[in-house]
Design goal:
Layout (H helix, E strand, L loop, with lengths): L15 H4 L6 E5 L3 H7 L4 H21 L4 E8 L7 H24 L3 E5 L7 H14 L6 E8 L1 H17 L10 H5 L12 E4 L18 E4 L9 H13 L10
Parallel strand pairs: 1-2, 1-5, 2-4, 3-4, 5-6
Helix pairs in contact: 2-3, 3-4, 4-5
Bound molecules: 3-methylbut-3-enyl trihydrogen diphosphate (IPE) (2 copies) and magnesium ion.
One 3-methylbut-3-enyl trihydrogen diphosphate binds next to helix 2.
Length: about 250
């Protein structure tokens, strides 16, 4: 199956076979650079967020076609509340619009929607659209599309520690039983494999409170491309770079 056409400079066409095997099971993306994309064009930051939604649509489609098992995208961090209220409102409205306009297509493509983060703090409309998307796609068996919303890695770990402490007090759990796998069951990502590949566009090389526990052995890939310009060919570049990496997990090369 062809995923995109040659761009005219004799780049060979890529096929699913070219990229398989060794497609990352779980790809995590920090969708960054919308504001700078807009600024470069003399547009308001919100225009950048709109353009960013287009990138998201195409990347979700491609990941699903490539049979990525989990795609986790950072859409709103626990620190993004610090932004001006108008920008936060636009981001929340865009989220609701995005889900309503894409839900049918996601569902038809067997994609299952999940979220990580404290969604109870989001505006009611946004919460409703998320609940609807999860309910409609809950039986789907294809790619898990995981949206990080009001998500912060430190909050996630803190919440897990509090719940574990409470369960220990309630004698549901013995202290000596608290192992890595037990803690993982208290995280938002319960049941998901750790990300194999983290992609951050926009030139920043930091993780900004994203998946602090889960990224322990993830391969990182950075690009200066801003998120609204991040297209299918960029994703393929990232996957090809990943496929050349040698992962050792602290052991030795076999
Ligand atoms: C990412 O783009 C979107 C969110 C954080 C919600 P930014 O808005 O951070 O864009 P820059 O980093 O200012 O360019
Ligand atoms: C990370 O980007 C959060 C999202 C993309 C949702 P930020 O733009 O908020 O991160 P910093 O402030 O540059 O670290
Ligand atoms: Mg940013």
């Amino acid at each position: 199956m062809l995923f995109w056409k040659s761009n005219g400079n004799n780049t060979p066409l890529k096929t699913a076979q070219d990229l398989n095997p060794n497609i990352p099971r779980h790809i995590a993306i920090i969708m960054d650079g919308n504001g700078r994309w807009a600024k470069k064009r003399g547009l308001p930051r919100t225009a950048g967020h709109r353009a960013g939604v287009k990138s998201l649509k195409s990347i979700v489609k491609l990941c699903s076609k490539l049979k990525v098992e989990v795609l986790t995208v950072y859409a709103f961090s626990t620190e993004n509340w610090k932004r001006p209220q108008e920008e936060v409102e636009v981001l929340m409205n865009l989220l609701t619009e995005y889900i309503s306009s894409e839900l049918e297509a996601l569902s038809e493509n067997n994609v299952r929607v999940r979220t990580i983060g404290e969604i109870e703090r989001l505006p009611l409309e946004a919460q409703k659209s998320i609940i609807k998307a999860k309910a409609k796609t809950t039986e789907n068996t294809g790619m898990i599309f995981n949206i990080a919303l009001n998500y912060g890695g430190r909050n996630e770990i803190l919440k897990a520690v509090q719940e574990i402490a409470q369960d220990a007090i309630d004698q549901k759990l013995k202290v000596e039983e608290i192992e890595k796998e037990v803690l993982e069951n208290y995280l938002y990502t319960k049941g998901l494999p750790d990300p194999d590949l983290l992609i951050r566009p926009s030139g920043e090389q930091r993780i900004s409170n994203y998946l602090l526990w889960q990224l322990a052995y993830t391969e990182f890939w950075f690009t200066d491309t801003l998120w609204p310009d991040f297209d299918e060919s960029e994703l393929i570049k990232a996957i090809e770079a990943y496929q050349k990496r040698e992962r050792r997990f602290g052991g030795l090369k076999i």
